[in-house]
Each structure stands twice: as C-alpha cells, then as structure tokens.
C-alpha cells in the first residue's frame, strides 16, 4: 500500500528489518509462507523488551494484578461457551472476475478494488477464523481442537483457580502473554495482520456497576504505557467502536490506534465484556464462577474490562515511529542521509555498543575487558554489542540504524588516560569519561 503524505514507505522498514536482523520472512528458503514472519536476533530482543516492559508495568508494579500462562489448546467446549464457534467469523466476498478474496467490511467500494479489475463481487458468506486441528494419534477418532484465537479464554476458565490460590479481592486482573491464531481472510502490511501473532491481554474483574468508570481508567493507563515505551502522543488516538463493529461479547469497546504508513490502525482494543464470559462458562461447565463479596455477604458474577493488544503491532508501531532519516555532512564535507531508529533506551535491542577505534591489537584487551564488564552489568541491564569491523563512522551508522542509544569508543589515548568516549545516537554528542565511572554514566544516560 502507498504511504500517505509525510509517511515513510513500508518497503524501507521491511528492508531495514531484514538487513539488520529484526524480521525475516518465515520459511524463506522454500519461497516463504504467506504473512508469517520470524523475529531475528535484534527483533527477538526488541519484542522481549516490549513484553518485559508491559509485564513490569501491568503486573509487577501493581498490587491488583497477577499473571497466568494457559495452554494454547483448550477443551473444545470452551469455544462453544465463549461464542467463538458460532460467531467468530468475518464476511468473505470473492471477485467474480479475478477470484480475489476480500473481507467485505474492509472494502471501501462495492466492486473488486484490484486496479485493473473492478469486477463484480459475490454475496458475502461468513468465513470461520479459528484454526482446527486433531488431538490424538488417529485422525478419524481424534477429537477436534482449536488453536486459540485469543488468550482470554484461558483466563476465564481459570477464574476459580486464581481467586482461590491468590486470594485477590475485586477489583483485580489477570494478565497473560501468548500466541494466538486466526485464519484471517486478508493479511498484510508486514507484521500488522498475520495468522499467527502474540497477544498481551488483561481480564480485569470488577463489581458490576463499577465497570464504566474502570473502563475509562484503563484507557488512560494504556495510553500512558504507549507513551512510556516512546510512541509519539500525536500518532496515537482513541476510537470508540460503532455498535455494528462490536464483538459478540462486548458492551462497548475503545481501540487505541496508531497512525501507520497506510493510515490509522488498531494496536489495542479495550472492551467491556460484562459478565458474558463467566456466565457462559458457568452454563456450559456447570461450575460456579462467582466471587463472594464479604461486604454484602453475597455471590456476584464480576464484570470484565479487557485491555488486549498485539505484541507484533506494538513492535511495528515502535519501528515505524522511531524510524528517522536525517541529513548530515560526512567527514569529506558531503551531505548524506543518516538513518536511525530513535527507540526509547528501555526498548532498544542493544543498549550499548563497544567500538575499538580500529582493529589494532593494542586496543583489543582494554576494549574486550570493557565489553565483558558492561555485558554483565546490572546497571546497564541489557544487551551490549562489540563491533570492530569497518571504519568507526560506518559502525556508528550501523548502530544508529538498529537504535543503539550509546556507543563507547576505545582509542589509543584510552590506554594512557583510562578514559573512553561516549557517543550519543540522537545528538551525536561525544563526551569523555573515566572507565571507572563508565557503568554509572551510561546507566544515567540510558534510564534517567
Ligand atoms: N480478547 C480480545 C481480542 O481478541 P481483538 O481486538 O480481536 O480482541 C486484540 O484483538 C489485539 O490483538 C488487536 O488490538 C491487535 O493488536 C491484535 N491482533 C488481532 N488480530 C491480529 C492479527 N491478525 N495479526 C496481528 N495482531 C492481531
């Protein structure tokens, strides 16, 4: 898709991601598998940092939250009760001329949108999004199970287990990070819409009647989190679902959207699921999934506020948001474009790069010993890279392009004065510090 005005080209992002080891096409040597992606050495670090930051903010720093890691495969009745078997569908239309398939609700025209086609579209038919598989050694006898399309149901079916073991009082939430699968009709925009993706979900249980107030508090808290990981506030907006967009379980939903190269796109949905899920599972399983309220001396079925986001979409937004091209002058006085990812240091895959000025063997022992210390430093608390290939200028550019906030350069003076140079990614300012003060100075620049 063409980028809108002032938006970067998605091709540039995809090319950087491949070149530098963020994201690769899955099964590439076999020609790839449509819209499935593999995270490379830097991508996996970036994604992990996003998940860790979220878990830290949403679970560890709050006293009203606990975590869970439920299985992907669940009893098939789960999906009957949740309504997914019946309602988790999208309207599929097919062009009668070129046979391309589309999600009807994503189309802006009533004819085939393919530029040289414009053919008539079929009547919509509802297409089921859950992936089916078989459990057991013999396909005919085996029971059908589904790859979960959301992690949420693992939380609902464990409601009693968590309440009884953690003794949490309302309001409280259960958070979970894990893979989900949807056989989407149309995929695309790189890692934005795929058939396998990772979710970070919270089911926050509240007293009925307190749901609306707590819903709006969660919208604010989630927006704050996106700002904390470094997304530009003017690239974020909140949009309320129209009644015809609402999922089968939702009373109201607000999406947090990001201004992607192709336009506004959802990164998070924050839904009021009411008591729909707990009641449905009570009906299907016969188990009581209620909460005993000591104040009123009665059992209540809590309402649920659900902040739910896709990790891959958050990663995509971070890369797009931080991608910057700047005009600079090189050492020969020629102007050139500097590409950098202005990632927040807490999210950057590499925190610090140690760069000896050259490969001269005199610089090697000191550079290596600094690298060894920083790698294990709890003050730096992240990945440190060593790079001595090519000119120092090229190495700075390479680190800029992968979003490394700080480089440490070891030169011949360092051998005498026991000082090194810290070079900052965004300003390119360089300052000299004593090696004994290096860890603390770097930590301050990274995290304060
Ligand atoms: N349990 C609620 C739920 O599943 P959703 O809005 O369907 O709600 C939540 O999904 C989030 O999961 C979305 O906001 C989006 O970030 C992510 N997501 C959904 N479908 C996706 C897909 N096909 N590829 C990547 N991420 C997806």
Provide a short characterization of the protein structure.
Helices cover 30% and strands 29% of the residues.
**Average pLDDT over all residues:** 94
Shape annotation: globular
Which cofactors or ions or other ligands sit in this model? glycyl-adenosine-5'-phosphate
Low-confidence stretches: none
> Biggest β-sheet: count, sense, barrel?
7 strands, mixed
Describe the structure.
The protein is α+β, with helices and mostly antiparallel strands and 448 residues long. Helix content is 30%, strand content 29%. The chain is built from 13 helices and 23 strands. It has helices spanning 10-20, 41-60, 77-82, 84-87, 152-157, 159-166, 211-228, 276-285, 311-322, 364-375, 392-401, 412-417, 438-447; strands at residues 23-25, 37-39, 65-67, 89-94, 101-103, 125-128, 132-135, 143-146, 172-181, 196-206, 236-240, 252-260, 263-274, 291-293, 298-300, 303-310, 323-329, 335-341, 352-356, 384-386, 406-410, 419-424, 430-434. A 7-stranded mixed sheet has the order 3-9-10-16-13-12-11. Strands 20-19-21-22-23 form a 5-stranded mixed sheet, with helices on both faces. Helix 10 (364-375) links the parallel strand 19 (352-356) and strand 20. Helix 2 crosses helix 9. The two termini are 39 Å apart. It binds glycyl-adenosine-5'-phosphate (GAP). Glycyl-adenosine-5'-phosphate (GAP) binds next to strand 10, strand 13, strand 16 and helix 9.
């Amino acid at each position: 898709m063409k980028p809108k005005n002032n938006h970067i080209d998605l091709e540039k992002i995809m090319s950087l991601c491949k070149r530098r080891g963020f994201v690769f096409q899955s099964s590439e040597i076999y020609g790839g598998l449509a819209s499935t992606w593999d995270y490379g050495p830097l991508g996996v670090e970036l994604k992990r940092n996003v998940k860790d930051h979220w878990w830290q903010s949403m679970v560890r720093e709050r006293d009203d939250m606990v975590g869970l890691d439920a299985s992907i495969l669940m009893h098939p009745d789960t999906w009957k009760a949740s309504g997914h078997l019946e309602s988790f569908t999208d309207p599929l239309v097919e062009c009668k001329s070129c046979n391309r398939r589309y999600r009807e609700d994503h189309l802006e025209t009533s004819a085939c949108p393919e530029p040289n086609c414009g053919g008539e579209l079929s009547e919509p038919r509802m297409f089921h999004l859950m992936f089916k598989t078989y459990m057991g050694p013999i396909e005919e006898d085996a029971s059908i199970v589904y790859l979960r399309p959301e992690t949420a149901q693992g939380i609902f079916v464990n409601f009693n287990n968590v309440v009884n073991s953690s003794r949490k009082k309302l309001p409280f939430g259960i958070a979970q990070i894990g893979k989900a699968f949807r056989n989407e009709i149309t995929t695309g925009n790189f890692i934005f819409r795929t058939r396998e993706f990772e979710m970070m979900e919270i089911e926050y249980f509240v007293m009925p009647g307190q749901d609306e107030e707590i819903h709006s508090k969660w919208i604010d808290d989630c927006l704050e989190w996106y700002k904390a990981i470094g997304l530009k506030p003017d690239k974020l907006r909140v949009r309320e679902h129209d009644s015809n967009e609402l999922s089968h379980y939702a009373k109201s939903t607000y999406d947090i959207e990001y201004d992607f190269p192709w336009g506004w796109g959802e990164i998070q949905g924050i839904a009021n699921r009411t008591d729909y899920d707990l009641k449905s599972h009570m009906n299907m399983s016969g188990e009581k999934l209620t909460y005993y309220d000591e104040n009123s001396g009665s059992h209540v079925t809590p309402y649920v506020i659900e902040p739910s986001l896709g990790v891959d979409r958050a990663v995509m937004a971070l890369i797009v948001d931080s991608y910057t091209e700047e005009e600079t002058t090189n050492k020969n006085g020629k102007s050139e474009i500097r590409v950098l990812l202005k990632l927040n240091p807490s999210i950057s895959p590499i925190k610090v790069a140690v760069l000896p000025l050259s490969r001269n063997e005199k610089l090697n022992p000191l550079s290596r010993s600094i690298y060894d210390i920083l790698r294990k430093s709890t003050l730096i608390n992240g990945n440190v890279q060593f790079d001595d290939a090519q000119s120092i200028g090229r190495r700075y550019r390479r680190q800029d392009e992968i979003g490394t906030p700080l480089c440490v350069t070891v030169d011949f003076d360092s051998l005498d004065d026991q000082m090194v140079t810290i070079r900052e990614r965004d300003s390119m300012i360089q300052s000299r510090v004593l090696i004994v003060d290096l860890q603390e100075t770097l930590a301050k620049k990274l995290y304060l």
